[in-house]
Amino acid sequence: MLQQWLYALDDAAIADWANKGLLKRGAKALAACDSGQWTLAADAAAANIEGHTQRLGGVGFAALACDCPAFGPCHHLCAFLLGLRERLVAQAAAGDAAAEPPAPATPWLDGDAASIEQAFGAAATRRALQWLARSFEAELEEGDTGLVGQLLDPEEATVRVPRAGGLAAATCTCKAASCAHRALVVLQARQAAGSAIPQLPALGLEAPARARLAQLEDWLVALVLQGCAGVGPAFVDQGEALATELRQADLPRLGATLQGLVQLLRDDQVRRGGAAERLPDALAAVWVLARGLRREPMPRPFPELAGVHRRSYRRLGGLLLHGVGAEVWETLAGQRGFSVYFHAPESGRYFSWSESRARDLDPQWQPAAALEQARLAGIAVPALLQRGHRLECGWASADGRLSARDGTRLSVADGVAPACPADDLATPLQGLGERLRADPWQRPPQQLVRLAVGAVGALQVDRALQRWSLPLGDPSGIPFTLRGELAGFQGLACRQLQAGLAAGRVPSEVFGRLSQQGGLVVLAPISVRWAGAPGLLHLSAPRLAASRGVSHA
Amino acid sequence: MPEQDNLQAWLDAGQHWLARVQAAGLSCAGHPLLAEGHAWRAQGELLGWAPVCRLLDLALDEQAALSSRARALLDLVAWVATARRLEAVAGLSPETAPPASR
Fold it and tell me: Which residues form the SWIM-type domain (chain A) (predicted)?
């Protein structure tokens, strides 16, 4: 069994266990050492590399040991594994009769339901069963070398279970000695094949989540009884603390929804326009989710009701990006920041790169000034917005947020035509309608669109609701409304539009966030292109040099 | 579509009434506000929304426990808001949208 595992061991599995750098160093160390003195028996192996002794006492990476000072995987052990595999491959090529018979084809299906707990431990198996019960699933692919499982939620990991070596030889990119990711992949494969798995837990909430939901219900009942006008700041603070606790109890969607209600209550207390109008909807959103989570069975899949924490970033390469807008923003919770938006013409997707600071923690930081000075992969924002760039290496989340982490590389995309058509409003509208019909209470993902303008109405300012709106129509006649608040950076956007319209300019294209509000198609604008003008106007950051940006054909 | 208009008007009236109850607080809602609720209930009965009327009966029942009344009111808030959202989505279709002013 040991030799079968070593024979079938591929570089990807060694890299998952160690890392690519150690694997490379191991290959170099192997080339420089004499492997003739190594011993390889049916159930053990030993070697001496660079003056250190390596031993393998059974199947799996956990059975490896090296007496060098490194903690965990080292390049000696990588060299050891590569050398042992090399020797077995050579023996097989020479038709060595000592070679053992082939391993069972699907070790993840072997044994009874208890074998999973024996291999991965009771805690990891229990956690994996909870994930499985809550519909968190890995994408499974069975190949020649074994089973590969890609897990994105609730955590990102790649699991490999080799055909030779059994569950003990399974690896995971989380690098823990034993983990729930491995257990989930095996459980899922067994479930799909009809093999026995331990009983799935009842799809109930864990005790902390149940306790937080009960507290939330009491808080909501108190809010309804006292009335929004009757509650004090301490009560609202209590709601805010509860929102944080709900996130910590793995209910991020409910936490974020409650946070929205709390912000509206704060706005209402300072008589901020429009807050009272939006309160019933916000209250209903929290109640619907809380009720749904407490029902058995739940009316919608658990991950949909509970939400997922901010997803991790995945590596991207070769992505062509055109700057389409930049904005400066401030949230009601006191977070200030800027975002730069890009269009990827090859996929039609939008990406954003943001930086932010808490106002209380860094009062000196000014987002508008920071935007003008900011650089992504060494390229200043005006340059990013002026011409196309290719993201040679970078990281992005599933919802299109770019990370600015070290190693991000951008190059100027020469010879790429910047013109590409604006979005067809009918398409995102259809998607918006379908998603809302499927779940009227979902928090729709931020939908960025670039729309050509065919009709322009008059800009209206509603002092009572403290907001402004500008009715527009796309070239096919579908109406939409630009809308923002009168205060803050959105108020600055309003003044920019007012000034342009007063000067007789006509918008030819707008870029922003699409949503529906009370049956109206609303666009929160980020940038606008005036007809006949060469550049984009970034409405909340007008000092940013007007960039040429991408224009519709 | 007069039926749809009736429903929309009834939902809008309900939302308005619920917003006022939420602002004042159910425990402080006076008789005029509760009487408006009864009137809204009567309209709902005519439109055939019996389950909503039962929720409203509990929310308006001054003999019932306050926490039960508050829960019923929250259910009502959720029901009305969901119905309004679905009505709004129905009006989102580009084909049915009126043209923008030029």
Answer: 157-190
Asked if A339 and A327 count as a contact pair (C-beta separation under 8 A), the reply is yes
The tens digit of pLDDT for each residue in A33-85 reads 877 778 888 888 999 888 899 999 888 888 889 999 888 889 999 999 999 98
Q: Which residues of A touch B58 (CB under 8 A)?
A: none
d(CA A237, CA A265): 10
Q: Pick A426's closest partner by Cβ from B67, B94, B99.
A: B94
ipTM: 0.87
Backbone angles phi, psi at A123, to 5 degrees: -65, -45
Q: Which is more confidently placed, A335 or A390?
A: A390
The verdict on A219 touching B (C-beta cutoff 8 Å) is: no
A521/B contact by beta carbon, under 8 A: yes
Q: Which of A228, A471, A518 sits opposite B88 (nearest CB)?
A: A518
Whether residue A276 and residue B75 make contact (CB cut-off 8 A), yes or no, is no
Distance from C-alpha of A263 to C-alpha of A365, rounded to nearest angstrom: 23
Put simply, the answer to whether A224 touches B78 (Cβ < 8 Å) is no
Identify the domain containing residue A222 by its residue range.
207-306
Q: How many independent structural domains does chain A possess? A: 5
User: Do A390 and A464 fall into the same domain?
Assistant: no
Name the percent of chain A lying above pLDDT 70: 92
Crossing angle for the helix pair A426-438 and B66-90, to the nearest 10 degrees: 150
Residue A105 has pLDDT above 80, yes or no: no
Interface probe for A, chosen from B85, B87, B102 (most Cβ of A below 10 Å), is B85
pLDDT of A416 strictly over 90: no
- Closest partner residue to B23 (CB to CB) among A228, A288, A479 is A228
Q: Kind and range of the H or E element at A356?
A: strand A349-358
Model confidence over A178-236: pLDDT tens digits? 899 999 999 999 988 888 898 887 766 778 888 999 999 999 999 999 998 888 899 99
pLDDT of residue A240: 94
Between B78, B84, B88, which is nearest A287 by CB?
A: B78
- In this structure, are A392 and A447 located in the same domain? no
8 Å CB contact between B47 and B67: no
**A288/B92 Cβ within 8 A:** no
Same-domain check for residues A296 and A249: yes
A47 domain residue, yes or no: yes
CA-to-CA distance for A224 and B21, rounded, in angstroms?
A: 8
CB pair distance less than 8 Å for A425 and B94: yes
